[in-house]
Fold this sequence. Notes:
The protein is of the alpha+beta class and about 325 residues long. It contains 6 helices and 19 strands.
Amino acid sequence: MAKxxxxxxxxxxxxxxxxxxxxxxxxxTTTKLKIPVIIERSKIDGPTVLFSAxxxxxxxxxxxxxxxxxTQKINKPLxxxxxxxxxxxxxxxxxxxxxxxxxxxxxxxxxxxKLGSLAxxxxxxxxxxxxxxxxFAVDFHAGGASRFNAPQIRIIPNVPDLYKLASIFNAPFxxxxxxxxxxxxxxASKLGVKMLLFEGGKSLDINNDVATEGVNxxxxxxxxxxxxxxxxxxxxxxxxxxxxxxxxxxxxxxxxLLHDGxxxxxxxxxxxxxxxxxxxxxxxxxxxxAPNDGYIIxxxxxxxVYEGDAIYHISGGNFENED
Length: 323
């Protein structure tokens, strides 16, 4: 029985609540920048689950999901331990930026290095100080730039345990997605952590419907693990998650103004009009059509696009990986 676990050099006993401020480096102004790690332990031993967000500092929707887990006291487990890190990349969050101050993408430098770049040192710290006590994890993300992701879980293929967890979480979509080199998910997996990656919404935005999907999925997952307090209501999905093995990006064939047809999350047929691209001077309009039957799982909400920009992500076709 794990009566005591140690995180960032501090011991946490059964039945104890503790917030530990993780501090790796200071700003160039010498100002301290602390990352709160919020730990709740039941008096009864059990699994340890990590809920993290903000590994990309501009993906605020995930931060909102973890915030709600705390304010609704979903993070107080019936058994076991729940660790919440609402903002992993506090540097990027302060600057409303995806990257670390050193210009690196934190989700591309794992497992990191004790003597590497700032982002690399931070990644190393997370893997060596927090992940060793974790059994399960959900890492919350949003679409980059102006791309809006329909709520979805991403898992690697051919892993029955992850398939089962994704089915229990039951987001509207579950995508099979290989680990990207240097990703948090990939490195945590190598250390034996069963991690789901949640995608939903877009950067620098809070979408209440997406946040609700994330929170409800967490409730279902914790209930399955026997960790959810009986006073918390579980919301059952009307439909089972839709598994997507292949997907591809529809790219702009010309530059111009993008007028979205609001098809996100919907099943479309080959030839259906998803939106149109126009020029600002009224000279042309080009329809963007679905190349195959499939679900629209991501849409570019930028009003201006350039030739070759990814504008719609549709299930079916050739697979394109993204974390």
